[in-house]
Amino acid sequence: MWPYLTMTLVALAGGLVLGEWKKSKVGMEILYWGCCVAMIVIAGLRNPYVGGDTMPYRGYFGYVASDGIEYLTGPWNTYRWEPGYGAVNFLISKFTADPQVFLAAVAALTIGLRFLAMRRASSKLWLSLFIYASFGFFSYSLCTLRQELGITVYFFAFPFLQKKKPVPYFLLTALAASFHRTLWILIPVYFLAWIPWKRWSQILYGAGTALMLLLAVPVIYFLAERFAPAYLVDTQFFEGRNIQTAFIPILVCVFTIFMQKRLLERDPRNLVLLNFSVYFAALFAVTLEVFLFQRVALLFFPFVVYLGPELMGCLDAAPEDFGLGVEIKGKGRGKELAQRRKEYKDARSLYVTALGLFIAAALLYQVFLLTANRLGLVPYRTFF
């Protein structure tokens, strides 16, 4: 598990130094893109048995490389309803038939494009990097290739959701769904994500979560029979997860709700992230009943890479926010200056405490994910 923990600790140490203490834009860019390249290398060099889904995807690429269009258009193509993924396999096969090169190319697409999207949209880049490593999103890029490619494409649709631009949003979401069918769920999310945070919507969310918990088993069997019958052959997909799986996502949602006023004052478009936090928390709660709901939760949970920086940004404090550095005139200026300094010190203490707790929770979550080893990523070995 050390390659994954090392990436997390490098992101954390470098981020705290270059993003918080000795702030450096150039240093931050080097750290950010250096971690991106390192993650691509780790994913590209992995042994075929690292990642529970790696071998089946290697096998699929082998069929595409040997039979080409004939295989993709034939009834034996298991992913014929996800033509985007088939097209990626076909394009890579035009340059190489080596499945190890294929894994490296897919890693470069999944991780590289995700980093590009985060670079353009994150309000605190080092924290997005740390969250990507510690919350397990990097780990998923070594296993669930189709869904991760789809989610990466959806990262480019997400800004259009926040800007309320339907045409590019729907087009990019449809493209994302061509890699994994679960992403079609995100089409109606364009309307749902802007539900205002009111008493009635809170009641609706609470009732919806309770209903999902009651009907989780029959609903998931109904959906699996019609859209994913392959899951029916393995009963583990219909078993519940333990509380550790859902605890941190639910905790993030609770903190987001607690901070919702500041979050929306900071940027009204953060309503989308607030609603996303409710969606992934509710779905992770239902995961305690049926594991398969985690696949849907993971459509919303990756956007904690934006939510985390926004939450910390609500608490971050600068001297100028308290009028420090501005000349104070008139009587009692010494007392007023002392008051401002105290308020600034208290605000910084709150920020540092919140950031420290967030980091501790993230590290704890990663240790749990790696120890549980549900993705088959431990131990990490190279192919040579």
Write up what this structure looks like:
The structure is a single chain. With 384 residues, the chain is mostly helical. It has 18 helices and no strands. The longest helix is centred in the last third of the chain and has 40 residues, at 333-372.
Shape: globular
Oligomer: single chain
Helical proportion? over 70%
Mean pLDDT: 92
Helix count from the secondary structure assignment: 18
**Main pleated-sheet profile:** none
Strand proportion, as a percent range, falls in under 5%
End-to-end separation: 18 Å
- Low-pLDDT residue spans: none
Rg over CA atoms, rounded to whole Å, is 22 Å
Instruction: Label the structural class.
Output: mainly alpha
What is the N-to-C order of secondary-structure elements (H for helix, E for strand)? HHHHHHHHHHHHHHHHHH
| Strands, count | 0
Brief characterization of the structure:
The protein is an all-alpha fold and 384 residues long. The protein is built from 18 helices and no strands. Helix 1 runs antiparallel to helix 7 (125-134), helix 3 crosses helix 5 and helix 6 (99-121) packs parallel to helix 9 (145-162).
